[in-house]
């Protein structure tokens, strides 16, 4: 998608150096810095510290982590250990586990000399598949936005939480892909961008993406959604997902559940955009089975922004020595979700409908 009118993606292999490159998302929207990942250690740092984030993108990045590790030791034993390390970096999103398993399955019966090439090919494939999946999610989700526009014949107001745009994937995004497609097809849109405390992915990333694409948006603090919905200022909510169970429970950024409750109460459709790689077909109960990542409490007690001199600065906003607890995700039960938009088709948040994706 566009950055200053040039097309960019979030992760790529440099044609000359064959190094893996990413955008360091910790610095957005203030600075666009490209970072090289040259070792497994770099990849683990990038995922843990959220230089890259968003379920699909951390899955793709982890695949390149497997490749970089295999360049040092391509034995199956080392790659099993690498996979475990990668999965432990961010436990909630299923995409890392999905990518690691895909790679280990592919190499398990071959000689270790072949592993590095095989893993690189597969990582490139996983990256390309993510682009294709998000493109198709965009097309399938466009139909839903178009239906709303056909009925309303006026600007469609979409509320989104966290960042599930192209920065959370390789390109296009999940929740924002339908928005980008609809905008390009001339549907008038306005996006309500939830701040998404504590790391502010809505303000820092979603708003930056939308503004670069020229899509009208307004930034609101996390508690505003209910008021907007009561006052008929939201036509549809679309979010991403970090892990969706086979029964349609959706684990996504903390605060998603409260938006879904407000949407239900106000009869507003709540859609989740989910690449099939983010569906965990082995789980049936989101609340009891999905591991919820608890992050460093500093993310709550400090905020980062530009100071008056234009320098990126971190400031403390809570009493010294106060205790904060940083749950990064919550689970929205299936009954609050109207549709799940996948790359294959739009399904209901029910087991039968979700299992039909495997046919
Ligand atoms: O903690 P983050 O920024 O990785 O959380 C990201 C989200 O919750 C996204 O909404 C989710 O990964 C879906 S992204 C396509």
Structural features, described:
The protein is an alpha/beta fold. It folds into 2 domains: 2-129, Four Helix Bundle (Hemerythrin (Met), subunit A) (Up-down Bundle), CATH 1.20.120; 140-358, Translation initiation factor eif-2b, domain 2 (Rossmann fold), CATH 3.40.50. Helices cover 40% and strands 19% of the residues. α7 (201-213) links the parallel β7 (189-194) and β8 (217-220). The two termini are 32 Å apart. 5-S-methyl-1-O-phosphono-5-thio-D-ribulose binds at residues 53-56, 93, 162, 164, 168-169, 174, 201, 239-242, 252-253, 328.
Number of strands: 20
CATH superfamily of the largest domain: Translation initiation factor eif-2b, domain 2
**For the CA atoms, what is the radius of gyration?**
20 Å
Find the CATH topology of the largest domain. Answer: Rossmann fold
Shape: globular
Strand content: 15-25%
Q: Bound small molecules, which ones?
A: 5-S-methyl-1-O-phosphono-5-thio-D-ribulose
The residue fraction in helices comes out at 40-55%
The assigned structural class equals alpha/beta
Q: Gap between N and C termini, in Å?
A: 32 Å
What is the CATH first-level class name of the largest domain?
Alpha Beta
Identify low-pLDDT runs.
Answer: none
CATH-derived architecture of the largest domain: 3-Layer(aba) Sandwich
On the 0 to 100 scale, the average pLDDT is 97
Strand order of the largest sheet: 8-7-6-9-12-19-20
């Amino acid at each position: 998608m566009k950055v200053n009118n040039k097309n960019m993606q979030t992760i790529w292999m440099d044609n000359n150096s064959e190094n893996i490159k990413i955008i360091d998302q910790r610095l957005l929207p203030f600075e666009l810095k490209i970072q090289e990942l040259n070792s497994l250690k770099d990849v683990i740092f990038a995922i843990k510290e959220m230089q890259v984030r968003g379920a699909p993108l951390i899955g793709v990045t982890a695949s390149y982590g497997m490749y970089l590790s295999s360049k040092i030791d391509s034995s199956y034993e080392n790659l099993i250990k690498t996979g475990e390390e990668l999965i432990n970096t961010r436990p909630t999103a299923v995409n890392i586990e999905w990518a690691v398993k895909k790679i280990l399955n592919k190499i398990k019966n071959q000689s270790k000399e072949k592993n590095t090439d095989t893993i690189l090919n597969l990582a490139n494939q996983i990256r390309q598949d993510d682009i294709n999946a998000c493109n198709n999610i965009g097309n399938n989700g466009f139909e839903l936005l178009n239906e709303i526009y056909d009925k309303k014949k006026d600007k469609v107001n979409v509320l989104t939480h966290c960042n599930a745009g192209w920065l959370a994937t390789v390109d296009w995004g999940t929740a924002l892909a339908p928005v980008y497609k609809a905008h390009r097809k001339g549907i008038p849109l306005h996006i309500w961008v939830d701040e998404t405390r504590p790391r502010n992915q809505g303000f820092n990333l979603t708003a930056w993406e939308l503004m670069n694409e020229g899509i009208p948006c307004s930034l609101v603090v996390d508690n505003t959604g209910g008021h907007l919905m009561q006052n008929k200022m939201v036509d549809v909510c679309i979010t991403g997902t970090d892990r969706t169970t086979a029964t349609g429970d959706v684990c996504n950024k903390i605060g998603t559940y409260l938006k879904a409750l407000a949407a239900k109460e106000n009869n507003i459709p709540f859609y989740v955009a989910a690449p099939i790689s983010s569906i965990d077909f082995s789980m049936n109960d989101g609340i009891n089975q999905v591991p919820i990542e608890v992050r460093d409490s500093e993310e709550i007690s400090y905020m980062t922004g530009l100071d008056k001199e234009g320098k990126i600065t971190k400031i403390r906003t809570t009493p010294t020595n106060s205790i904060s607890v940083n749950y990064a995700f919550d689970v929205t039960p299936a009954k609050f979700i109207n549709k799940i938009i996948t790359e294959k088709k739009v399904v209901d948040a029910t087991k039968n409908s979700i299992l039909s994706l495997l046919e």
